[in-house]
Amino acid sequence: MTTKTKVIIAGAGFGGIAAAKRLAGCDADVTIIDRRNYHLFQPLLYQVATADLSPADIAWPIRGLFTRYRNIAVALSEVTAINPSAQEVVAGGRRYPYDYLILATGSGNSYFNHPEWEPDAPGLKRIIDAIEIRKRILLAFEQAEIADNPAAQRRLLNFVVIGGGPTGVEMAGAIAELAKVALARDFRHIDPKAARIVLVEAGQRLLASFPPALSQYAQSCLEQLGVEIALGQPVQAIDTQGVRIGETLLPTATVIWAAGVKVEGPGQWLGVETDRGGRVAVTADLSVPNHPNIFVIGDAAKVIWEGEKLVPGLAPAAKQQGRYVADVICARMENRTAPPPFRYRHVGSLATIGRNAAVVDFGRFKLKGWLAWWFWGLVHIYFLINARAATLVLLQWFWAYLTHKKGARLITGLRPLFSPPKR
Amino acid sequence: MTTKTKVIIAGAGFGGIAAAKRLAGCDADVTIIDRRNYHLFQPLLYQVATADLSPADIAWPIRGLFTRYRNIAVALSEVTAINPSAQEVVAGGRRYPYDYLILATGSGNSYFNHPEWEPDAPGLKRIIDAIEIRKRILLAFEQAEIADNPAAQRRLLNFVVIGGGPTGVEMAGAIAELAKVALARDFRHIDPKAARIVLVEAGQRLLASFPPALSQYAQSCLEQLGVEIALGQPVQAIDTQGVRIGETLLPTATVIWAAGVKVEGPGQWLGVETDRGGRVAVTADLSVPNHPNIFVIGDAAKVIWEGEKLVPGLAPAAKQQGRYVADVICARMENRTAPPPFRYRHVGSLATIGRNAAVVDFGRFKLKGWLAWWFWGLVHIYFLINARAATLVLLQWFWAYLTHKKGARLITGLRPLFSPPKR
């Protein structure tokens, strides 16, 4: 159909979208392949899981982002193989030829060689994960309300979050606020305020990537919210009955996994070396060794920064890499000098804990408390995809701030609730 | 625990909620049992199916509606039996004793003795139905975009709506606008404007409950939107390949059922007489013959109006009946004179067809066109459950009106999209 240079982008996360937008200015024929039809604003996904926001507030159809860019096509399909010698990607049984390939397929959850834990401890990566977690949390309260024995009731009112990084901290704080504020007066046979929320972290402090003072602050905020924190305690086992931490079995029906990520895809498809987390070690221009026209960016890439550190799995890092490889490709297409090697610019880290409590670490500029919380909110609103989303999210946050209520307390799911009685 | 009069309400639709709110003023101990945790604003459900609104915009947690009413409890459970002699409802294996019982369990889809059609022609009753229909509609376009043969493409771009009542008319109009406006410029290998939308009605006109002039208007509006209308054509067969209408097989992957309702539950539980649609024939005070303390209201009740007509399955009818039976129960509890027999007051009928096109029939006050459309919107906003929902829906409608875009174009679902390749 066309003899233009073909660029395939696998994955429409922050990295893939940034690359595509930058490539729109080049005379390339771009196809984005993703197995979902939406781009997800991952940093707010936990708010879907805790009934604060609706999926459509933080996810937008990929093709809707490129309506105006006639040289960018989108294929809803799943990449299953790459044939570098034929320069083809295989997705959904079809072959997509490429001149340049950008792999921006992100990461999944790592259960540290315990895949059997997944059904009882879902992670938070996709919209359906968030809906499932929301369902489990809300259903636990509903089932406790109609349970006829106190032991079953207590088990249902225990909630365990595994992993003390930003996602774990945000989830634990949000579940505590849900139980102790939003749901507090809605039940007649149980007291939601009696719910136990336990945050389990194998390391010695929460938010390990932040300075110790901010970790300490996050911990005391969570404790004030009533969250129990178990540090230095790796999880031993998870099943339908509960979680074993050290020698203790904590009976619970609701476990949320926020403990580790794992990359699958690029390393296997290309048969190249990866680190233990599955990340592909890339060269200075983010291409794969011996495959100069294949690039790996975002969570899937192992990129070193300041001599030894791994570039973190954050949206700004993926975006910088996406724009960088687009520039490399455009320069090669136009026979211009290649850009200098990729250099990651760390902007900063943010995590929210609960109402009026967050931590901000921008290097020399550190912040905690209510000002950090408002700053966190502003930054997230600013980076939402468009004015419509920003207005809707702002409005819902504002309403929740004033009323202490949650707006999306729906238990939905394609699996029927009652046949068979499962949880 | 308490010796107060116990009232059980099965079903938290318009009727059940209205009854509970009115009973809050009485000294009764009320329990609402519903198998979902949300009250659904059914009249706008089709807008979730067509990606205009999110589920949480039109569904609210039942217990959240009764936070302030300490004598009203909510149980997320499914009624499976009633034992009138013991005065007990069985739900989720538990027994709930009652002094008065209100059955407000609504209706499901009737496939006219063809239950095998259901998987290929989902109806629009629950949130998950709307999400499933949204998924099928959007997925058809996505699959057409990557299909490699024209016949498969044409089949995927055929959409069939069965049933020419308000839901069918609204769905057909909304799918046409989705294809011909919202999606028009988002694809590169297909032209969404080439989609065929076929509305099939067994009777001789659309919107049979409206005056013929408004039916005619609705038909010409839909035809202008590019909808094909097949009147007097009962459906012969539905399967994964398509729909057989008369002698013609229309190949399609997307069929939506809006043709008939059926009541299940109350008749069987009580072993009493029902009409062909499963409705329980009730007495003048909406109680079940020979069961003076059991009431049936809403879609599940057969109530006659103006001598011969069946009270329609509309929200105002269910609400009137809910308030009425609450008054009957309060009067009996307080030994006051019973209210006079139930009399349905018909307010009117509304249906929207598409942008700036709707029909309104309030008896002597009839309206069509843009004024009817704005009136339709105002009425629906007014009846939304609270100011938050009204603001969010208004904002989304306003944004869609200005930009011609849809805000919730997400393909989600717990079943994975790709393994096994199904549709």
Automatic annotation (TrEMBL), chains A, B:
The chain crosses the membrane at residues 373-399. This is NADH:ubiquinone reductase (non-electrogenic). The keyword DNA repair does not apply. InterPro entries: FAD/NAD-bd_sf (IPR036188), FAD/NAD-binding_dom (IPR023753), NDH-2 (IPR045024), NDH2-like_C (IPR054585). SUPFAM superfamilies: FAD/NAD(P)-binding domain (SSF51905). Keywords: FAD, Flavoprotein, Membrane, NAD, Oxidoreductase, Transit peptide, Transmembrane, Transmembrane helix. Residues 6-322 form the FAD/NAD(P)-binding domain. Pfam families: NDH2_C, Pyr_redox_2. Gene3D superfamilies: 3.50.50.100. Belongs to the NADH dehydrogenase family. It comes from the Bacteria. It catalyses: a quinone + NADH + H(+) = a quinol + NAD(+). Its EC number is 1.6.5.9. Residues 346-402 form the External alternative NADH-ubiquinone oxidoreductase-like C-terminal domain.
